[in-house]
Amino acid sequence: MSIAHHIRNALQHASMIRRVADEGIKMRQDGQGSVFDLSLGNPLIEPPPAFYESMKQLLARGKTGLHRYMPNNGYPETRAAIAAWLRTDLDLPFTGQHVFLSVGAAGGINTLFKALLGPSEEVIFFAPYFVEYGFYTSNHGGLPVIVETNDEFQIDAESLRKAVTEKTRIVMINTPNNPTGVVYTAESLRNISEVLRDASTRYGRPIYLLNDTPYRRMVYDEYVDAQAPDPMHFYEHTIIATSFSKDLAIPGERIGYVAFSPQIEDIQEIDEAMAFCARILGFVNAPAWMQHLLPSLLDTQVDMSWYAKKRQRLLSFLRLTGYTCTTPKGAFYIYPKAPGGDDMAFYQELKRHRVLVVPGSGFGRAGYFRIAYCMNDETIDGALPAFAKAYETLHKPE
Amino acid sequence: MSIAHHIRNALQHASMIRRVADEGIKMRQDGQGSVFDLSLGNPLIEPPPAFYESMKQLLARGKTGLHRYMPNNGYPETRAAIAAWLRTDLDLPFTGQHVFLSVGAAGGINTLFKALLGPSEEVIFFAPYFVEYGFYTSNHGGLPVIVETNDEFQIDAESLRKAVTEKTRIVMINTPNNPTGVVYTAESLRNISEVLRDASTRYGRPIYLLNDTPYRRMVYDEYVDAQAPDPMHFYEHTIIATSFSKDLAIPGERIGYVAFSPQIEDIQEIDEAMAFCARILGFVNAPAWMQHLLPSLLDTQVDMSWYAKKRQRLLSFLRLTGYTCTTPKGAFYIYPKAPGGDDMAFYQELKRHRVLVVPGSGFGRAGYFRIAYCMNDETIDGALPAFAKAYETLHKPE
Fold first, then answer.
1. Is residue B116 part of a domain?
2. Contact flag A7-B52 (C-beta cutoff 8 Å)
3. Count of domains in chain A?
4. Could you report the predicted ipTM of this complex, rounded to two decimals?
5. Do A139 and B280 touch (CB under 8 A)?
6. Are A290 and A135 in contact (CB under 8 A)?
7. Could you check whether the bond before residue A176 is cis, i.e. omega within 30 degrees of 0?
């Protein structure tokens, strides 16, 4: 027995996303033709040209001292640049101290949970959810508590209210959402903030609202011109965790940040705790080279029309075929109902046609499936006939 | 109360290294002249030219897909390149599966501890030690157990034997050593391996020997031509955690690896557990850009004569002045006895002369102090008069 028991158990119940990915690897090697893999959120698009321009300029400048340790919360100039960007974007008085540079959003969330969670304190998140939230919580001695969303994947005040206790430390949302693609409405955010404001007063300490928001700038339809509702404008104890993985298409580089609402008290102590936790968890700091590049790239992002076209094609095709889909307003996922209602049966049926999606059971809500459309057109187009056939085979006429 | 109680407590007893660093920041701003800061192991030397050459070549190649998610344990080609390098270096049959790319050595150690440690299992390490080892252990539910080294900072079989129990999962060493600079002798390594082999048999499962070895290629004197004794040649259940932070002078980039002895069984399961733990801890993977650069840089390192000269000058001066120093055979630290025996008093006295070192109490062995000589010559030369004066003031004639 080499590894820890609880890790072996976790591996045996490993994330559905990962199991599907492994299936994909096997199928690609089985010599039976193309695989149309819409399972992993690993963007095929290249980083914007400005990313490489910025790197070339930094190289040409020939500055020294670019790769040393810096303060664990990041280079002051990078923190300040992001704070300035957030000031404009959210119209709140951010300073560098409100911004912690992290090893991706996932690294930021783990650092934050380490800093905030006392033993057996609770973290609430909403189904369907990214399955690793549970591990992020238990890594640091916290207990995950799951609350259901409604049929539109939005948040009811009542469901949340029932779940909040004096042990609740953090409520975690993810808007734009993975796996559903929905953007939380002003009503959802008002519901959350009312419940949390009440509970914070009742229990005499703030409950934090954490928005895991790597898809923040990837939105469609009415949100392209008018900003989507932002939790920071609804609730004072809001924290953002985000990354440049999706909007610069650099997930392998592990660069992101955590931003604290300027309305949060004790920012000095939180800042010190974040630096300390980044160090002892072994992150130490976000990669230096990427930190140097960021200040010139904050207004840059991948061409969203690349995604918008794929979303439109898929949505139209699926609806025409008969699928029920909540319209995704952000990210690059669609989360339709599985025809016939059994997402595992649907997954197997699609797989017979060499198409891979992730069953909703993998996100804590069965009866649905997730399509990731960050793929090239050949993969998406190649999958369409299978969606039609699987619908035909499995749907039950009402 | 914003942050967790146990984190607030830890902050209040924060690492001595960090407290000294904060002192340095304050002193540099006090307008009372230069500070000669020999406290932090943050190399001033620039990365070797090959590092930038490799980056420019990669940019010029214009390859696509360089920044996507890859398998969580790293790019297969980078793993294979490091395995090939290790095969030559250690004459053991490494394959890519034995190499896990990590976010620095610290990230690798945390991932490993998460994968291996069951609840309340014990990790043994040796005083004096890098104070964050204790946190790395407790982060994942383990219990730190500290064993003293002898007067030469080498390891006795007897002291280790007394500390090993059926709860011992990992014994962690650090050779070349921070803070002492010593390289463990063949005798120390034989002592460890005998004790661990016995205990592994007695308790019916392997106790792992982890060598945290970021200074592996930074050695002096007899080890320049003949390789220093390597734990992998003494004990079959040995694991290396290392990084390119020191030998390429890129600590801010967070790139390193964990390598498992080819003699370790169940490598497949360990490999899967490492990938899983990297993911759930939020590292996800080592930075992609650095992973692409590594294969061409494995035989590159900073110019060791830069360090060797500083080491020689400091050692000669200190010994001539009257200090007792064990000869450091690696890394960039010297760990002399504090004149008068009280390392805190000595630290304060040096500070009066605007010189900063880290008191031995910060490494779990009082009565010594650590000099980091990865600084420029002006800083080192500027500190020498203070070392002479502090010795004069504090030493007690025998």
1. yes
2. no
3. 2
4. 0.96
5. yes
6. no
7. yes
